[in-house]
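ugh ok so i messed up the first submission bc i forgot one of the chains. this is the corrected input, ALL of the components this time, i swear. 719 residues overall. if the numbers dont match what u have on ur side tell me asap before i send this to the collaborators (the ones from the other lab, u know who)
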Amino acid sequence: MTSSQLNELSTSTVANVAEVPLWKQDGAEPFLKIENVTKMFGEFTAVDNISLDIYKNELFCLLGGSGSGKSTLLRILAGFESASSGRIIIDGVDMAGIQPWKRPVNMMFQSYALFPHLSVADNVAFGLRREGVARGEVKQRVAQMLDMVQLGALGKRKPNQLSGGQRQRVALARSLIKRPKLLLLDEPLGALDKKLREETQFELINIQEELGVTFVVVTHDQEEAMTLATRIGVMNNGVIVQTAEPHVVYEYPNSRFVAEFVGSVNLFEGKVVEDLPDSVRIRSKEAGVELFVNHGISCAPNQTVHMAIRPEKIKISRNKPEQTENCIQGIIEDIAYMGSLSVFKVRLANGKDVRVTQPNFVRDMGARFTWHEQVYLSWDMDSSVVLTS
Amino acid sequence: MGHGQQCGFDLMSIPSGSAWIDKSASGMARYNLFRGVNWGRLGVIAVPGLWLGIFFFIPFLVVFKISLSESAIAVPPYSAMLEWDLEEAYATFKLNFGNYIYLFEDTFYLDAYISSVKIASVSTLITLIVGFPIAYLIARSKPSMRVVLLSLVILPFWTSFLLRVYAWMGFLKKNGIVNEFLLSTGIIDQPLIMLQTDFAVYIGIVYTYLPFMILPLYTALEKMDLTLLEAAEDLGSRPYQSFFLVTLPLAVPGIIAGCLLVFIPAVGEFVIPSLLGGSDTLMIGRVLWDEFFLNRDWPMASAVAIVMLVVLVLPVMLIRNAQGKEEVHS
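and heres the new structure output, hopefully the right one now
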């Protein structure tokens, strides 16, 4: 799928031209420009020739597993590590040789790194005091910031007297108090439990919209990235594999890595037998049938490709559906009831397992599919993606 | 002093609520007074408690008792506190506060206390200034290197303390190594008088007690989270500011512990001032020795020891205790 097609896809939902995000406007000046940045630790390449443009007011998520280089890139932006080669330009200024304490950047650390010997208010005030802001103003701005993160009453406490969620908000307040142009967040919600996470995610978005700060968030949690981000950069082995809006990353992954890393997916290996401009026919031993996808790819004939289909896009039925394309038969091997939906593991005749999720429409357990039931799996030809890499 | 902890019930371990009633209803257990006692815990506390009781508290009481008697030509060389006259059926109980009064009347003792505190304080300060960079270096070096450096700090303990002080005599004496070296290089043309001065006492104390300063400082610095320094830099603090605003405050527990470990033994130090110090180096440890062995005035010596404990060590311990409680609260 070409980039122009992608653009069309995502802009089609936006009616007003003025609302077209900056990264889709031609000639828009990026706020943060990462140019061919490489970071070596001895022989090991942590960040491998990354180039990335991030625009004003974006909430950009760097998503990747451990060791993917996402944290290293963030530390380069903050100035704690220097790039082996390449340039970092923030708001038009080259950051080469600029020390961390002089950058227009603040960071929220994964461990929060709150000063244990200082009170909450003193922690938040730390940055302003280093700037030499007048006492009265420090007091007023700290109070204002603590109110914003709903910690107004806890200013006198020490960090070890706070709960995890409260500490996280102190760390956020401390990193925002200097009104940085760019805020870096390293796994900001990693230490929180699920419920608190969800609350804070929305809080973060509100704060970001309120203050107009550009956020770069590092996370290994794809759900977090999905909820927070304007765009996601999926990282693997020091390289950004795909940069796109959350829904594009999910619905149109550009590689098997992205498809498997973001959400769960069923992959069918096969050979291209017919490659038309707007459709592809794939012969797949794994699926046991010919697969039909309604978008074009550019590939050599007979090339081995993978067709990816998300579990929730597969329909499951007892009776043979009317469609002839993309329909396979199997036996339910396992069921996981998850409340809102059920996950089925369906085994095909050739032994391949397919994961299918379905919302639990009815309450009656009797009406549902059960173990070892013979079922048909089918999907629309525009539900799947062909991956060449 | 753990002697008080041997007796008494452990209230926390008495089972509460229904379990207690259910079990006791079935038998006589209800009337067993020792039911709530956690014997295992008591046993564990009893061992150090007995140790402290026998080897610290009882000797302390003995010394205190001697300090309240009079010097006498006898074996042991002090008067008895309780005397029985069986014929007259008459008992005398004598308490002599004369030693304590004399202690405050003769400025010699006061001078000795003040001089001890001064020498110990200055040595502690020097030890801190010398020890901090060393501890910092060790704490910030690679883990494999830390082991080596720490063992270098501890290595001197493998030879006797006395031998090491004698070695310093060899260094500092008139024709010692230091003077020989300085003379041969032509920096001085007259040997420096270093031995038997306060200078030598400072060197001896700082040298001897340096490891006691370094180890607690190292512990405090080593456990510090280094991302705190990054956080400080990120918020606009230069490295030297980060040191004073973050590293130093977080090292305070180590600084206090190190200073106490150096100050307390240094105040009562006897060997170093008598071997390295001059005749005018006045320290309470030496006064104590002289009272015991030269004057054979055990009661006076005991009084000196008791006052040293009460005036110098006790306040320090109380401050430390209060700090400990504060930490528990927060």
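quick check: The beta strands of chain B are 82-85, 90-93. that seems consistent at least. Chain B is about 70% helix and 0% strand.
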